[in-house]
Amino acid sequence: MVLLNFALQDSTKMSEEKKSLNFIEQIIEEDIKQGFQKENLRFRFPPEPNGYLHIGHTKAIGISFGLGEQYNAPVNLRFDDTNPAKEEQEYVDAIKKDIEWLGYQWANECYSSDYFQQLYDWAVILIKEGKAYVDSQSSEEMAQQKGTPTEAGVASPYRNRGVEENLSLFQRMKAGEFEEGTHVLRAKIDMESPNMLLRDPIMYRILKKAHHRTGTNWVIYPMYDWTHGESDYIEQISHSLCSLEFKPHRDLYNWFRDEVYNYSKNQYPLLPKQREFSRLNLSYTIMSKRKLSKLVDEEIVSGWDDPRMPTISGLRRRGYTPKAIRNFIETVGVSKRENVIDVALLEFKIREDLNKTANRVMGVLNPVKLVITNYPEGKEEVLIAENNPEDEQSGSREVPFSRELYIEREDFKEEANRKYFRLSLGKEVRLKNAYIIKGESCVKDANGEITEIHCTYDPLSKSGSGTEESKRKVKGTLHWVSIAHAVSAEVRIYDRLFSDEAPGSHKEKDFMEFLNPDSLHITKAFVEPSLQNANIGDQFQFQRLGYFNIDNDTSPEKLVFNKTVGLRDTWAKKNK
Known about the structure:
By secondary structure, this protein is α/β, with parallel strands linked by helices. The chain contains 14 helices and 30 strands. A seven-stranded mixed β-sheet has the order 13-28-29-30-26-27-14, with helices on one face. Strands 24-21-22-23-15-18-25 form a seven-stranded mixed β-sheet, with no helix packed on it. Strand 9, helix 9 and strand 10 (273-277) form a beta-alpha-beta unit. The longest helix is centred in the first third of the chain and has 15 residues, at 57-71.
């Protein structure tokens, strides 16, 4: 189900009515009513540094950090770095940059690897208590014994190993005496539990790979379910918030937490509470890190920050703003039910933001030459253009005008019907901030392609001049650039990377089959000279075309623009 809610509540009504609480806020408020001390509230965002953050993560980020801001409570940024085979410092740095760019600040920067020794010590206690054992079966054998949701599992032949043997084997695993895959440490819980995650889950595996922080100090690494909850416990997180796919993990989270609490309650008195919310699923978008990594590895995209990628770094490079993304997350809200949000809502939010903040400029993406035949040769003048009518403080700029201009090729037809309000022979249009012109003739090459358009102008019709002619109404207005002053630029126009609404949901087809071959179009354009000194990241509205920003590839010798989003949603119309 695709949900698209553009309904914006009246601001006056919102100020008069108390904002309703989402279910997570209700849980917290109820806990406080039941005696939980507000000053003990603590939240965390725990990404694994095995890739770049994407738009799906922004919901979890917004919930945890938003609660931190709401309750004036600390929020930890904790890296779940327990798999050195996939994790890199590059991803740690990128995650920190993305969160800071979104406007959030964490109280403490933590790592699961900070707790490796404590986790090991607690695992030893569980072994001594007869609640963990070393299993020496292969992964295939253990999988076969796991059972099914309707059939109980079968106990491992090593389940009843003695405590001393388990301790010895576990210590030797830590010492690096065994090869990968020969032994694992499992919790001894219940092989007949209806929750298959409680059927003696693996706590440690042997992995002889260097860790980005601990180097080669460890050759055994804790599994996610063992690490995650105990990291929350060590950090005394009050409310451990995660997406719905972890709801079945809650029983295991509580089992590990309660077992450790028995030995450590004097040091760590607070028991964390796990609660789950629905993930952010976006139409026409892939959220899987594995699949996004494939796009990068196979060079389908230029990198993790390719503007077609749903990564935060990709959205940033494309010209999305932190405010637009945060407004999007707020509009989506917090729910318990999985759904798919139409990507058009995200695009609406960036349009809404940039409409208020982006200066208006003129650029021509598909140029054809326009000659004003009755405009004096050699004459040039400077027109004054408003930067942003939505922002009174934005000021104005100078735009040069001359006899020869570029206009969009699509803005001229030799003959046109009455519904065509652009330039055609015998009809008038206004040049933005300038004069009214009338199409007179055109020049074509040997292939019949128009190479030059000739027109005449009304010298009394200059915009803002105060004459009666300047107030005359015509139905069409065109943007333009003076050829003598035009600055050449490369413009990258993006479409959706996938042509299917749910590219990752087809069991019978690979998601790569739904790649949009037209997701990137690069064109040479001409822009007004005010853009010559623009900086990387600067954002503009190309009048009549959409919102654009200066790309990272820009250099003193070459201007490069990314199209952030069009002025209106054309995808839905195109795909009807």
